[in-house]
Amino acid sequence: MTPGTETFYGEVRNAFAGAAQRLGLDGPGAGEPDRHLAVASYTGSGVTYTVVLGLWQGDIEIHACRETASTVCKVGVAGLARAAGVADGRSGVCFGARSLRQLRRSLTGQIHYVELVHPLVSGAPDEALALMRAAGAREWHRPA
Predict the structure, then answer these.
(1) d(Cα 125, Cα 72) in Å, to the nearest integer?
(2) pTM for this entry
(3) Omega of the bond prior to 143 within 30 degrees of 0, cis?
(4) Band of the pLDDT at 91, cuts 50, 70, 90?
């Protein structure tokens, strides 16, 4: 059974505490309540990391989001780490969250990727967006 939202927020807070302090991230910010998802976010240096727990699917994923004056890019940190060359496909990042043990393991692995990619996505916008696009980011253009 997937952990509930209260457990999720407590585990995210505990798992992200060290990385948030080292990277200068503020959070967690809670997303809008939803029957299907629980969301927490950490923001700093122009990047927002959104931790999303699929309550029905029992999975968890951390996305990196970078906004500029003309665009918004969003991509999962595991794909971003592979595109940046700081992780390989065999590193075995987990996404499962059907139990508290799985949730903790998935958070630990994905937060490690946040720490690896943060210097790359928080730097110069053009390079950050190019890396995010190479990782298959979803991109929205702002109206002119």
Answers:
(1) 11
(2) 0.91
(3) no
(4) low
Closest CA to 42 of 62, 72, 56, 58: 62
- If we measure between CA atoms, which residue out of 140, 121, 122 comes closest to residue 45? 122
CA distance linking residue 114 with residue 18, whole number of Å:
12
What's the order of all strands across the beta sheet hosting 47-54? 26-30, 37-44, 47-54, 59-67, 71-76, 138-141
Q: pLDDT digits over 97-108, tens only? A: 989 999 999 999
First to last CA, the chain: 46
**Exposed/middle/buried for 70, CB within 10 Å: 0-12, 13-18, 19+?**
exposed
